[in-house]
Structure formats: C-alpha cells, structure tokens
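In practice, a research group might receive sequence data for several interacting partners and want a quick structural hypothesis before committing to experiments. The following worked case mirrors that situation: the sequences arrive first, and a predicted assembly follows.
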Amino acid sequence: MTRLLVAELRRVAARRLVRLTVALAVVGIALGGVAAFVWSGSLSEETYQQRLADIEERREAQEEETGACLNANGVSRGDEISDDIIDQCFPDEFVEVDDPRFRRSRLNGILQGASGGLAVIGWALGASLVGAEFGSRGMTTLLTWEPRRWRVFLAKTVAVLAATALFALVALALLALAMWPALSLHGAPLRPNDPTLASLAGTAARGVALATLASGMGLAIATIGRNTAAALGAGFAYIIVFENIIGSFIERWRRWLLLGNVIVFVSGRNNGGDIPGRTVTAAALFLTAVAVTLLVAAASTFRTRDLA
Amino acid sequence: MLALDGLELSVRAGGVFGFLGPNGSGKTTTIRCLLGLARPSSGQCRVLGVESPDHLSDVIGRVGALVEGPGVNPGVSGRQALTVLAATAGIGRHAVDATLERVGLGERGDDLVRGYSLGMRQRLGIGIALLKDPELLVLDEPSNGLDPAGIREVRELIRRLGAEGRTVFLSSHLLGEVEQVCDEVAIVAGGRTVAHGSVADVLAGTRPSAMWVKVTDIIAGADTLQRAGLRAELDGDRIRVEVIVEKAESVTRALVAEGHYPTELRPLETSLEDAFFALTDQPSEGAHDASVGR
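A structural hypothesis for the assembly, expressed as tokens:
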C-alpha cells in the first residue's frame, strides 16, 4: 500500500497541471503581497486619531446641512423622500477616515477569500487528477499492475487529498508571508475586534480543510463520471441550479446546500452567512458528510464497474 | 449483450500463443476478463493458476499486459510513466532505463508522451508490459501503429520472449505475424472458440480436401481423372482435383493407367488466413486489411 501511495504521489507531482497551478499560485501570491504593500501605507496613530476627529466634525456638519435642507423642503421625520430631494440634500458621498494601514482584519479577509479560491482549485485538481487517468486509460494500465481496486482508489484518494492539503497549507502560509511586509511596516495597533494570531491560524486551517474536502468531492464525481468534465460540469450545474435557483427561492433549503455552509465554515462565526442558526461545527460536519458520501459512492462504483 | 458465450481456452506455459478472431468476436473482452478489468457474469478465468480477478493480485507481478494500446497520460514523459508504475511494484530506476532502451525509446524517454508518434506510444506500451520482467505477457495488438521495421522488431522480440520460456498471449489481427511467431493459436468467433491447437493442427483441420496435379497434357489428364470418378478442373497450368491427401494414390493410379505421368502432385496450400476465414465464415477478399481485428 505504501508503494502504491508513493507511486500516486509521484504521479500527482509529475502532472503538468499541478506544476502549472503551483507556479501560478506562487506568482499570484507574490503579486498579491506587492499589491498589498503598494496599496497600503503607514500612518501614525496620532495622525489617525486627528483624522478621525476631523472626520467626526465634517460628518456632524454634513448631517446638519442635510437636516436643514430637508426642513427647507418641508420633509419631516418618517416622511417618504423623493429622488429630487435626495439629490438636493444628501451628499454624494459620506466622509470617511482615510486609513491606508494594513490591519490584521484585512489579512483575515484575504485568507478567507483565498480559501474560496483554493476550494475551487482543489475541486478542479481532484477532478483532473483522476479524470485524466480515465481519459488516457492510465487507470486501465494501473489496474494491470495493481488489480485490487479498493487499494487503487484509496491510494489515489489519499494522494489527492494529501497533495491538495499540502498545496493549500503552503499557499495560505505563503500568502500570509507575502502580506507580512504590509502588516509589519504598514500595520496598525490592534483593536479589540482584530483577529488574534490564533484566529488567523484557524482561518487558514479551515481554508486547508475546505480545499481538501473540495478535492475529495471533485475526485469522487470524476470517478463516478469517469472523466474530468463530469466533475467540472456537475460543479457548474450545481452552482447554477441548486445554489442560485433553489437556494434563492426556498430559504429553508439553504442549510442543506454547499455554499451557505462554506460561508459559515470559512467565516468561523456561528450564525454567519445567510443560514440562521448554523454553527461552524455543523457546517464542517455537513461539508464532511457530503464529501464522504460522494467518496463512498465513487469507491463503490469504481470497485464494481468494468473498465475499457 | 452477450460478448463471450461458452469460450473455453487454455494456454500452456512457455511459448507464444496467438489469439485470433474477427471484430466483435470477444478477444479484448476475454483479455479484460483475464486481467480483472471486466467481470464475467458467469464462468471462470485462471491466470498462472489462480482465479481472476479474486486472486489476480497474487500473480500480477508476474504478468505484463498491453491492452488496446498504451494507457498513459500524455502529459507526462515516457520515463515518468514507467517510473510511476515501477514504484507501485518496487522496481528500480535501472529497470526503467533498461526497458526504455529495449523498446528503442532511450533517447526520447524524457519527452512528453503527447509528442510521441503512434509507433512510439505503442513501444512505450510494450515497455510497460515488459517492465516487470514478466513470465506471462498479454499483448493486445502490439504491432498497431508500427512501421514495417517496427513490426519486424516486435515480431522478433515476441519470438525471443517465447524462446526464453515466457508465455506470450498475443492477440493480433496480423495473421501473417501470428503464423510466423506463434506455437499455438486459438480462433474465436461469436464469443466461442472455433479452433484451438498448434498452428499446424489448426491448418490441418481446415485444409481443403483437394490437390494440385501437373501432367504434360493437362486437358487429357483432367479428362482421365473425371472419367475415374474424381472431380477435377483446370486451373491455369495445373489441375485441381477434389481428393484428400490420404487418397492421393487413386489420382496417380488413374493418370498412370492412361499414360499420364504426374510431374507434380501436392495438397492445396492453406495459410492461417485461409483457416481463419474458413472457421469464422468471413469473406476472404481483402483479408490483408484491418477487417480482422478486435
């Protein structure tokens, strides 16, 4: 089994898609780090507080001007306001503090966004790594070397999950590292709501778990459909049909759809996203159950079906 | 759909075994069943003495196979493809290099399979089958896509492997190839074995009961044979007479009795191709093209 697993890991490493994905991820992360540094800036806390006070004054003045304008037009509290009066009385944009600093909360948001991207990459990798084997009949060749199908499926699954987990872990670690110059040179003192290092690590860990689960789902569907396109097509159809149409119209179904659970899971906040009452643990369990069910179905199909 | 129906076949250890049959006769299905790629709804397959697929893993290390062309991901190099498979069986890099050399891909081993010609891919497939240094080789159309020189190389390789004491199970549509390299053959049609035995036996079983006769005056000779109660007709500069080899004496006796001394008397030649078409009820015209395949 160890030999088979080593062979499968070698097979994953030999794939050009994997190498290309890694190369693109490294380039993307490096560019992201540069962009974060360039589009952020340092600011002393004193200057920030001064700007905050100035903004507060301007905001009060803005509110006074708006109130006076509304009174002049005979609008009382609770009245409906016409578009003309809105144009006339309300400012084009409300003033806000210009704070160019790179805060931990921003890093947390970037890690969460990257987790979604890694999940999509994981799905595609899982689907491609097994789908290409069916497409090229490499699976047939492999079975003439190891006819015990459950071992082949297990080795492939473990290899794909491990490779995706490693890829996601390294990608998120590199992403955090790439953001480090911006965070350390353009950072700001911690606020009570800013995430701790432990919670940043938690966000990254959930990102790794999500990408890994997604690769398992992609692999399972590609195994059942015996090609990559089946998994990618199923994923696309699912997002378009179930998530968009059913999820939008039947609210109570949302807790049984993937996207809402993914949002809760990645956010790390109970009752997050648009599924009321969904906890992070419940979302994690739901996603794991979906992945495991698909993998069991794929294993069963792979074990019994004839191969060309 | 019934792909195989009452197919009964046994292959002796050692030597080259030819497996012939027209399109859809069940050749590749048989190979798939043997290698555990397809499960028969009933019946039994044994490979190297063990039940397949249930115990195939016990002997798979001694079996090399090429099924319907090489199944290799085109996005990896030939060397990578072999190295990954070698890793599953604990075979070292040295064997990979030696195999690439053996199939003539030593210099192109690091190129992507995508860039290989059909013949090179086929060589890689044969390399995959040979990598385990197997005692049983199952080769499904190994000459597909090869140029004449390549076909000859493969033919010599198969002959050599058989001579080494390995068992080569060769499924091929090249009847000439099978006739030249095989010690035994089986012909399948409609999912059943219609002939099985040594090449000579299969040929003998389908040999037409006729002989060629040459005499100085073939017209008079043919007339003599007809009067002697034999079916004889002119065919170019010789007479074809319907008689089994064992009764050749009656031909000689009839001719000599009337002063016609045979200058040639021999049975009609039968090739494996003739035997194949006779056994599978296929029309023999254009038999050299791909009308006989999987």
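Before designing any experiment, note the following. The interface with chain B takes residues 3-4, 6-7, 10-11, 14-17, 132-133, 136-148, 304, 306-308 of chain A (CB under 8 Å). The two ends of chain A are 24 Å apart (CA to CA).
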